[in-house]
Amino acid sequence: MKAKFKAHRDYVIGEISPKLYGSFIEHLGRAVYGGIYKPGHPSADDMGFRRDVLELVRKLNIPIVRYPGGNFVSGYNWMDGIGDKFKRPRREELAWSSIETNQVGIDEFQEWASRAGSEVMLAVNLGTGTVEDAKNLVEYCNFEKGTQYSDLRRANGFEKPFGIKTWCLGNEMDGDWQIGHKTASEYGRIACEAAKIMKLVDPSIELVACGSSHSGMETFGEWEAEVLKHCWAYVDYISLHSYYGNRDGDTASFLGCSLNMDAFIKSVAAVCDYIKAVKRSDKTMYLSFDEWNVWFHSNEQDSKIEKWQVAPPLLEDLYTFEDALVVGCLLITLLKNSDRVKIACLAQLVNVIAPIMTENGGKAWAQTIYWPFLYTSLYGRGTALRCIVECDSYETKAYGTVPYVEAIATRNESELTIFAVNRSLENDIEMELDLSDFGEMSLVGHIKLNCADLKAVNTAVQPDKVMPSKGKTENMTATLEKHSWNVIRFRIK
């Protein structure tokens, strides 16, 4: 099969925000306890954080991590997780039917994020929580000294403010599964008032309002419009969440699910622009796609987990090679929409639907989806370019007509990088590259991720079953092997 790819220096989508490569840690399953934190583990540091996990996280170059939820945050009292660990309460955690020990809270997590080279994207509780609770948390984290909560932070051993600049106004408040679920009007009002008071405490912070939990919600679209009517003046982003799976074994359709993500993004952007017009505003509302991933493998297993355990093994999807192809396509879709999507969080980071897995007393390893995220995070920086891709397509049950090639180019001052997925399950594709507008160039390298077995997984016993290897690009023609993810880098002379 043949394809053509053309990029031009002036066909610009937008600047790629570094926060497009964010992730997520929730107090859910073994994400915190047994994931990032395990005192007594051979690799544990002075605070009980696993050094082996930190090493894998640092390699991903993640600029921001959303915390502490997720559904968890809607029933969470942030004061349970500060101060003397011996005095912290154990709680029934109602969102995930677990026992929360509160041995990790914002005091510890902000330090973990610092050691991981990331910032914190902190969510406030607008389920059972109040506007005042949100205000107090900002004061605790960001106010220097001389007030009740800033001085409480200092008494807890943190003289300098944490300086957290990105905040989520609750989580998935449109969902009836959410503790403190609200109508769009109810949520819009409390989000507005919380945003106002939080920015009075620290005017420099940025705020994310809750959009629809997914595009299939009955209130999708109407929810975003009503919420933004209330809090437009005070928020900077609205959120999107979406998970994908291959429950019926239709791999061809599964590989096309990024078309759904693309349509979701464009729909939410259109609603934002509608409210912009209604408000006669010159402000652009940006998007925070702060939960996205593949999630379906663990659903049946989770239904059998005994309730009210500490850190039970929940949402522990073992990702296949085909899942990695999908993650590669979803990353390309985020880049294609980088003019509006300025924050995105792969959900989640460790053990819970995650690129990194651990054994409680043993090793940590990279799942298949780690690799496309790693290389896109490393090389997908700078400016995203609007490319022309000519290729054949195929028909799917779920998403209609899907092109065989999903591709995007990014550039910075010295390099042009192409990310491409060949969705064909049967044929290699020779993709002709037209990059003549960039002048003289030299190939830096071609990395591919491919495996003969679409269902192959990486495990503690065999952590390198699916690994990147060297691809083939010669004379401005890239070989995209059947069912492969590729990154091709050129140096611009």
Describe the structure using short key phrases.
7-stranded antiparallel sheet; 2 domains; Immunoglobulin-like; TIM Barrel; 25% helix; single chain; globular
Architecture blueprint of SSEs:
Layout: E1 2-6, E2 12-15, E3 22-24, H1 51-59, E4 64-67, E5 91-93, E6 98-100, H2 106-116, E7 119-124, H3 131-142, H4 148-155, E8 166-169, H5 184-201, E9 206-209, H6 222-231, E10 237-244, H7 251-254, H8 258-278, E11 286-294, H9 299-302, H10 321-336, E12 341-346, E13 356-358, E14 364-366, H11 370-379, E15 383-385, E16 388-390, E17 393-396, E18 400-403, E19 405-411, E20 415-422, E21 429-434, E22 441-449, E23 468-470, E24 472-474, E25 477-480, E26 484-492
Parallel strand pairs: 1-21, 3-4, 3-12, 4-7, 7-8, 8-9, 9-10, 10-11, 11-12
Antiparallel strand pairs: 1-16, 2-15, 5-6, 13-14, 15-19, 17-18, 19-20, 20-26, 21-25, 22-23, 22-26, 24-25
Helix pairs in contact: 3-4, 3-5, 5-6, 6-8, 8-10, 10-11
